[in-house]
Amino acid sequence: MTESQSLLAHLTPWFYRPIEDRGTDALAYILNGSAACRAALNQMLRDDAFAPEPTLSFKTQVQYHEGKSRVDMVAYDSDGSVAMVVESKFWAGLQPDQSSRYFEILLETTSKPGLLLVISPKSRNSFLWPEVNEQMKAAGWTLERVSSFDGIRVANVKGTNKRCVMVSWEALVDRLDAAAESFAVRADIHQLRGLVQRQNDEAFPPLTAETTGHGFAILDAHFRRMVSNAVQRGKREFGLNMRGLQ
Question: Residue 214: what pLDDT?
Answer without folding.
Answer: 46
